[in-house]
Predict the 3D structure of the following.
Amino acid sequence: MVIAADDVIIDGRFASALARVESALDAGKPQVYHFSAYRHDGADSKPEEICPVRALYCTDGYVITLAAAKLLLKVNYPVNSVADNFKRWRHYHGLELYQVFPATVRQDNDSFGSDLSIPKKLPCLPRQLAWLVDNIL
């Protein structure tokens, strides 16, 4: 299943990246394949590659297997965290995370803006607590 935010730009290489993911994925395993360039300098110009990663950020475009979706439903019902807190699900429940290069999805911050600026407006302590939850727990 492909998941994309409503404020993304998908470039012309996406279809070929999706075909590579289709060849690489194991539908019986809980896997997520990420197409965004967020936190990856030069990701849109890297050679074709699919790399395992420990965490995914700015999950604006990804493929999730049915096994992964079932895992998230099992471990996050009733809801206790955002579904795309993939680092937590990898660490505690074995979700497999992959980054797809070159990046073929990016947020359209010019037209839609980005909610990434919202945490900067929070007072320091809540911002630090949010960081701890996302990066440590």
Observations:
- Strands lie at 2-4, 8-10, 31-34, 49-52, 61-64, 96-101, 105-107.
- The mean pLDDT is 83.
- The helical segments are 14-24, 66-75, 86-93, 109-112, 118-121, 124-135.
